[in-house]
């Protein structure tokens, strides 16, 4: 597949890490995706995609159009169609809040059809993009849609969450939650309530996901990996906790994950994202 992505222009860049197009034949149709510090929007311009939750009590879903996903606290699996044409958004963990008129808790660990959140938007996007638009033109259309959906005034508590979230982002989750509350002059309960409203999870959970993302993106499968050193650098000081969280987030032990990475190296031209991995 070809990946074309970029950071959108201000003020969208305050809430979005990148917008991107995926086009072509996937090297691996089934991909296992661990928790990462993002919420998502996917507009599917190709065949239907299938999604599985790692929670076996949740039924799988076939999605033909588009879907929002909030922050995920566990892994999920996506199966691409044989030919992919998809445009997407990686929101910052708090970034989806000013674009959707619903509590972020309703999107946590869920996929929700786009038209259930943005009524009658998919047909408009598809009509503008058509069947032959370039990736650049497709991204322009999506960026205009996002700009039109951005709330004019931030909702209550978003500024607080944004400021604390940026500190977690730049520190890779290493800032103690107590330091965030002290700096903001609020209680831990108040900060947690605002994070649940705008992110869907507590700041402690966001910190865990950023910490894991730092570790997984530090893995260079082409070289020997010192897991103890990587774990300590990322902020894991309990080896048993690190091993347990790694297995929970990826479905693999560190050794199994490294073997998988070496068997299926990342596709050239894709962003440096070592989180998602082939599922078979």
From TrEMBL:
HTH araC/xylS-type domain mapped to chain residues: 158-260
Record key words, sorted: DNA-binding, Transcription, Transcription regulation
Keyword flag DNA-binding: yes
InterPro entries named among the record's database cross-references: AraC_XylS_family_regulators (IPR050204), DUF6597 (IPR046532), HTH_AraC (IPR018060)
Annotated protein name in UniProt: Helix-turn-helix domain-containing protein
Organism from which the protein derives: Nonomuraea guangzhouensis
Phylogenetic placement of the source organism: Bacteria, Bacillati, Actinomycetota, Actinomycetes, Streptosporangiales
């Amino acid at each position: 597949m070809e990946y074309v992505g970029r950071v959108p222009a201000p003020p969208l860049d305050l809430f979005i890490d990148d917008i991107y197009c995926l086009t072509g034949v996937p090297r691996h149709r089934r991909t296992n995706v661990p928790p990462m510090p993002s919420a998502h929007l996917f507009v599917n311009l190709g065949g239907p995609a299938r999604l599985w939750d790692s929670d076996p009590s949740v039924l799988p879903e076939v999605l033909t159009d588009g879907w929002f996903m909030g922050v995920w606290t566990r892994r999920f699996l996506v199966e691409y169609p044989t030919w992919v044409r998809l445009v997407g958004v990686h929101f910052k963990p708090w970034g989806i809040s000013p674009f959707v008129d619903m509590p972020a808790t309703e999107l946590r660990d869920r996929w929700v059809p786009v038209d259930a959140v943005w009524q009658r938007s998919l047909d408009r996007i598809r009509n503008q993009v058509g069947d032959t638009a370039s990736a650049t033109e497709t991204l322009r259309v999506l960026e205009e849609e996002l700009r039109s959906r951005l709330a004019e005034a931030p909702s209550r508590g978003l500024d607080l969450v944004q400021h604390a979230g940026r500190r977690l982002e730049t520190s890779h989750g290493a800032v103690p939650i107590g330091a965030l509350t002290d700096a903001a002059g609020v209680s831990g309960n108040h900060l947690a309530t605002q994070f649940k409203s705008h992110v869907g999870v507590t700041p402690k959970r966001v910190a865990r996901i950023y910490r894991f993302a730092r570790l997984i993106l530090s893995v260079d499968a082409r070289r020997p990996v010192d897991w103890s050193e990587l774990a300590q650098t990322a902020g894991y000081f309990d080896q048993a906790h690190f091993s347990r969280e790694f297995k929970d987030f990826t479905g693999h032990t560190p050794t199994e994950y490294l073997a998988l990475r070496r068997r299926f190296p990342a596709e050239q031209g894709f962003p440096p994202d070592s989180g998602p991995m082939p599922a078979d």
